[in-house]
Amino acid sequence: MKYKMMSRLMASAALVCAGASAQAADVEVLHWWTAGGEAAALNVLKEDLSTKGVGWEDMPVAGGGGEAAQTTLKARVASGNPPTAAQLLGMQVREWAQEGALGDLTQAAEAGGWADVVPGALKDFAMYDGKWVAVPVNIHRPNWLWINAAIFEENGLTPPTTWEEFNTVAQTLKDKGITPLAHGGQPWQDATVFDDVVLGIGGADFYRKAIIEADMDALGSDTMVQVFDQMRTLRGFVDDNFSGRDWNLATAMVLNGEAAMQLMGDWAKGEIIRADMVPGEDILCVAAPGTEGSYLFNTDFFAAFDVSDDNRDAQMELASAVMSPSFQEAFNLVKGSIPARTDVSPEKFDACGQKAMKDIVEAEGNGSLLGSLAHGHGQTSAVQRAIFDVVTEHFNSDMSSQDAVEELQIAVESAAM
Ligand code: GAL
Q: Is the domain 24-140+298-354 a CATH 3.30.1330.60 member?
């Protein structure tokens, strides 16, 4: 009897093992794409992979901007159980590569000729030590201002192109009882607005010095004082319930006419499309005030984590699928971003997507294509967090601009050490 049970147990263990290897073509992907437009875009990937026989094990960690996802990922890696792949922003790719946690996608990259079509700014993050460690899914632009066209028309307003114009338009709306700015009070959203204000008031060279180079003089400059002044002004243009609001709920306020504008990356376009509204017509897209001609960017990468042999084929399949031109087109049409390769036609993209594709080429040419701080391409995670803390503290208190600038210098200096 005992023997029979033993052999039954062994047989079922063998089946489990066979099952495990039969599913070697599954990918477990950790990501934070849980809002409507994000999830719809992710479905494009899941479906694409299923046609290639690659199964999808979903590991969603809700939370815009991906902070919660990073916490979960760290715990998974620390416990020796990393996912097959994880959504990461550029600096996170670099930092995980430095930790030695990433695999090598170079074989897929060479077979697919990625080096010829992926823009240099993205390659800098996707490659580490001469190897491809991550594959870029998209290029997002965080410095957009989204405008409810009907509200502007009814009130005889034109889209603002400078912060001064923005303040005038916003005050007019506020006086009429309309919430000028939809905002979600979460550190990454505060920082998304801060990115726009630094770039819009200081210009591309100032953004480069203050953010990318963390230059102490730039961080402590009068220009930075003006930036915090503008942040304080913006605080007066949001509604009373902004604290903690998710970004997609803020976008919804603009779509349903509860607020006139939102400063947000073009993942907001995913929500516009899902609401059956037309980007560029119902909801206007203009560069955030003062930032026309410059392009802040952030890219979502899928990085190869679990480096065991079992999962290598599935990782390569995922990477190759992501880089295919047809996938890049299909995915980015839904996500609101533009393709991470230079050879996809703009033809099928809406007015905002076509503007993005044109603007990025112009910005690259004039040296104003810059990594977004709020979205993991401007600074190390430590310095990014330090800046987030000051920006959020200032936004939610009566801290003076002068004090904020001093705190900023201290925070960045200690985080950079
Ligand atoms: C960004 C990410 C986008 C979008 C957004 C809000 O950091 O790159 O793909 O999802 O967060 O969650």
A: no
